[in-house]
Specification:
heterodimer; A: mainly alpha; Leucine-rich Repeat Variant; 0% strand; elongated; B: 431 residues; alpha/beta; Rossmann fold; 8-stranded mixed β-sheet; 6-stranded parallel β-sheet
Chain lengths: 227, 431
């Protein structure tokens, strides 16, 4: 039945009953904990991903690679990052593959991607909580694209590390920078670094006049004071 | 937090730092204006709605009917919905002033709006709630408040960071399970051991064929952060079914009955057995003769089962007795009378928490917007309910038991399960 499923996958398109993919889902469940069985499935999926199978088929493959993908899937997925139609689903898998090669691929794709895809890649880098991405994210803070710079800020906020906070402090203040900075401040405060948290809130208060940000930074300072 | 007595117009005009940092509307009592019944428009909570289909329209009706609410704007990705809802608001106030938006960000950018209610499909909830908090708005968000496990902490963080009142939905948590709540909190059942929830079905994949996109709908915006798929009327239909032919049925937008009615039943169950503030530490997957069900184990020893064979919905077992109540049982639904098993095991009653004012969940939210209390369905409590749904969904997907670290919000040592904590959002959407 699995062979039939893989045959069907090659021409799987919108409108085809998704039940035809159930044997694949069941095979994934059965392969849990069995690296060899997962590899067999992964290799077959990568093979179809590299063909000119319909978008719906590649969408379905990326969903499965999100569960079982390893470093082996990274090249085929990376090749899709610049594709306007498939970039998101490539990230759907890459973002969740723990192998550092997945993070490397996302970082490498960043400078070459169009602005729209850059925003997605930045989101995925933040979601991976990968501290090695901070320098790359800091570079993107200076992007002239109105969507990219905030995306880089939010990714740094997702990391919420002292190094991310330092990168945010070097950038021109915006609401996104402020929000990300406050995420860092919360982490600093939770870690007992009150002075650093306070300095961050004070920086935000002094640099970002928007009322919600002013209020939030004031609340943050109150928290630092033990209120 | 105390309010300073001042007029609302005075508050809006103030540019000094002190009042600029006030993050809440400043209301004077209507009696001070000589009108004990209805505050003037300038003194009402200014509200807007985002996602105004079937459920959102109903929520809008509730807020619109409140004397201390001034409803000023509607937002929906369908032109026909915008037109209809704007018409209703204009008719209420006998004006043509209600604004209508397709892009919720334009609505959130308005400084005059104090609060929004959100009833979009589930896959939009986290994005809009977080953006609303960043914009300084209080939020009432329909259940289930989250689509996955990663969204909840981000929504709670945004609410706390910006000092917002954020209420989850589900008026049923307080209202529908009163008998069970009373028996548990009243001490009759003694120390509570377990409660069961029966709800389904699970969601399904959606691969419907492409149809021509009607002019009425902004399809790209309807999809938002969800994976791209071609338009199909059944994919985005907002009817309340969960067995197919509605977005509630499909896993890219919701989690079927597990979240749709699960948010109500799990919410009611966790309220009844007083674990609202907790998350389970483990979910055990059972497959007994083809019957699949779950046991959620809480750190305090209470067990919450899902679809346990032979058990009724919200069937609760305590040291002193067991009970399941169904006011209007469905065919085949298990209903059992209260059974006393060990009268000596009863416990003292404890006061049952409730809404801050009379008038249901909507009035509770509006009151909390004024007083800055946490609402009955504070977002953190609502997220704890949604966590049950998502943990359960994952256990059924991977068909095995899972351990959950609520403090770290991850599955300890379980790489496969941790892959499901979040899903990449379609650009340009980013939490």
């Amino acid at each position: 039945m699995l062979d039939e499923t893989f045959d069907a996958l090659k021409t799987y398109d919108w409108g085809v009953d998704p039940k035809i993919l159930r044997p694949l889902d069941e095979a994934v469940v059965a392969a849990h904990g069995n690296a060899a069985a997962c590899k067999v499935l992964e290799d077959r999926l990568i093979a179809v991903l590299k063909t000119d199978a319909p978008r719906a088929a590649k969408d379905a493959i990326c969903r499965v690679l999100r569960t079982i993908g390893t470093v082996a899937s990274v090249p085929a997925l990376t090749a899709l990052l610049a594709d306007d139609k498939l970039s998101h689903m490539a990230r759907y898998a890459l973002e969740r593959i723990p192998a550092p090669e997945a993070g490397n691929a996302l970082r490498s794709a960043l400078p070459k991607a169009a602005a729209k895809q850059q925003i997605g890649v930045l989101q995925s880098l933040g979601a991976r909580h990968d501290a090695t991405a901070i320098p790359a994210l800091q570079v993107m803070l200076g992007s002239k694209d109105p969507g990219v710079a905030p995306a880089a800020a939010r990714a740094l906020g997702a990391l919420a590390l002292p190094a991310a906070n330092k990168a945010l402090a070097s950038a021109k203040p915006t609401a996104a920078i402020a929000d990300a900075s406050m995420a860092c401040a919360e982490n600093l405060l939770a870690g007992g670094l009150k002075a650093d948290a306070k300095a961050t809130y004070q920086r935000v208060l002094a640099s970002t006049p928007a009322k919600p940000v002013q209020f939030a930074a004031t609340l943050g300072l109150k928290a630092c004071a033990g209120g | 937090m105390n309010t300073q007595p001042t007029t609302r117009r005075g508050f809006l005009k103030t540019t000094g730092l002190t009042t600029a940092v006030l993050g809440f509307p400043t209301i004077i009592p209507s009696s001070a204006l000589g009108n004990a019944d209805t505050p003037p428009p300038s003194e009402r909570i200014v509200m807007a709605g985002i996602g105004l289909g079937n459920q959102g329209g109903g929520d809008m009706g509730n807020f619109l009917g409140m004397k201390d609410v001034q409803y000023v704007a509607v937002c929906d990705v369908r032109q026909s919905v915008r037109d209809t809802r704007k018409g209703k608001v204009d008719a209420q106030y006998k004006t043509k002033d209600c604004a209508a938006y397709n892009d919720y960000r334009e609505l959130l950018a308005r400084e005059d709006i104090d609060a929004v209610h959100v009833a979009t499909p589930d896959h939009w909830h986290a994005q809009i709630v977080i953006d609303a908090c960043r914009a300084g708005k209080d939020v009432y968000c329909q259940k289930p408040e989250t689509r996955n496990l990663a969204e909840g902490p981000l929504m709670v963080a945004a609410a706390r960071r910006y000092g917002r009142v954020v209420s989850g939905g589900s008026q049923r948590v307080f209202a529908d399970y009163r008998d069970t709540v009373q028996k548990c909190w009243g001490g009759e059942l003694g120390t509570i051991k377990s409660i069961n929830v029966n709800v389904g079905p699970l969601p399904q994949a959606c691969n419907l064929p492409a149809e021509e996109v009607p002019a009425d709908i902004d399809w790209e915006r309807w999809l938002g952060p969800a994976p791209w798929a071609p338009y199909n009327s059944k994919r985005c239909d907002g009817n309340f079914s969960t067995g197919g032919n509605s977005w509630r049925s499909y896993s890219d937008y919701s989690s079927g009955g597990l979240t749709d009615w699960g948010a109500h039943h799990f919410g009611g169950a966790t309220f009844a057995v007083d674990v609202r503030e907790l998350q389970p530490s483990e979910v055990i997957y059972h497959d007994e003769g083809g019957k699949k069900f779950l046991t959620f184990k809480y750190p305090n020893g209470i067990e919450l089962t899902h679809n346990m064979p032979g058990k009724g919905n919200l069937e609760v077992v305590g040291a002193a007795g067991s009970y399941v109540h169904a006011a209007n049982p469905k065919p085949g639904e298990i209903v059992k009378p209260w059974v006393a098993t060990a009268p000596g095991e009863t416990r003292p009653a404890k006061p049952v928490p409730g809404y801050s004012v009379k008038g249901g969940i909507f009035a509770d939210f509006i009151n909390c917007v004024k007083t800055r209390e946490k609402p009955f369905r504070d977002i953190e409590l609502a997220v704890n309910t949604a966590v049950l749904c998502h943990l359960g969904m994952l256990a059924y997907t991977v068909q095995r038991s899972l351990k959950w670290d609520a403090a770290k919000q991850q599955f300890p040592g379980d790489e496969e399960a941790n892959r499901f904590l979040d899903n990449a959002r379609r650009e340009p959407w980013q939490l």
